[in-house]
Amino acid sequence: MASLTIHLDNHQIILTEQSTCMISGSLRIHADHLHGRPCHAKLQLLGQERVRNDIHSLLDTTYTVARNSTDFIQEPNGVFILPFSFHIASDLPVSFQSTIYDTLAYIDYTLTATVRLARQETLRAIQNLELYNSFYPAPPFRLYWGTSKQWPKWRYEVEVPHTIAYPQRAMLNVRVLSPSSMKRSSPFRNNHHLETCLIGCQLFESIRIGQEKEYEQRPLMTFTHMLTWPSHSWSFPCQLPLEFEEPPKPNLSTRLMEVVHRLRVTIIFSNPLGVTDQVQMEFPIIVLSVASTTRSRSNTANSDHDSALSLTNSCYSDSISDKEPSHAT
């Protein structure tokens, strides 16, 4: 009995800053003398996005990887090996799956191998591919600074990451300086221990699919942190880890779906007299390399036999636009 399997050198297809990304592996064919040697092989890479009955093709490319039997490497026991490699564009949308408004939306890629044997028998195998995006062309951080609204004014600086490569940890850096630390004549200069600063952080994910005009929004991160000696952070910045409460989806923008994230930072200042003031900033965040479980399809179809293997997940980036009028670099 003849059979065909697909083996990939790397089960995680990582899109990088290069214009193309290589996919490599081998086909393994079991064929005895009754079936004859393999003599021709081709690979077809398909990518599509789907929302309800709306299907959009992202990729449909065919590669001829063997034209005659001498292209195959023969091993003992009727096994034939065919190495292959090809390149795909690095700007493809990443793999994706989500259920919004009770509707399944997904982007998936499949690699189909077709091998013809000498006696005209055809073998076929299908392999799911899942793409990650590990790169976004932007500086690692943005810096925002300004002063509080009421007098006496506090100074603040907030350093925000452009991207979060989940599940890697990203940091939010905050520096604040109280009015009493800036003026030697301040009546509160010896009361630094009575000054406080509360930092609040929220990260939201918004998803829109199909023809829906509204985004489905969910909070992925909410925490607060109290600075009891706020002005110390001016010399030693307060570093706050941005830890997700549940896995995020990758940023995405295609014909049928869009995923965006935004980070909201609130700083509440309080002086020794109990007078409070606050500033609030909100800016987009790009989420990359989301390592979560996605749909896995194992389609088997062959004149005789098929096989399929499964892989893992990915992300894309979106454009940046800042809402907060604070200065940024």
What would your notes on this structure say?
- By secondary structure, the chain is mostly beta strands.
- It folds into 2 domains: 3-133, Immunoglobulin-like; 141-288 and 319-328, Immunoglobulin-like (Sandwich).
- Helices cover 1% and strands 54% of the residues.
- The chain has one helix spanning 179-182, and strands spanning 3-8, 13-15, 20-30, 38-51, 54-66, 73-75, 79-89, 96-100, 103-117, 122-129, 131-133, 141-147, 155-161, 163-165, 170-177, 196-209, 216-227, 238-242, 252-253, 257-270, 276-288, 327-328.
- Strands 14, 16, 17, 19, 20 and 21 form a 6-stranded mixed β-sheet that branches.
- A hairpin with a 2-residue loop joins strand 4 and strand 5 (54-66).
- It is elongated.
- The chain starts with a strand and ends with a strand.
- The model is unreliable at 291-329 (pLDDT under 50).
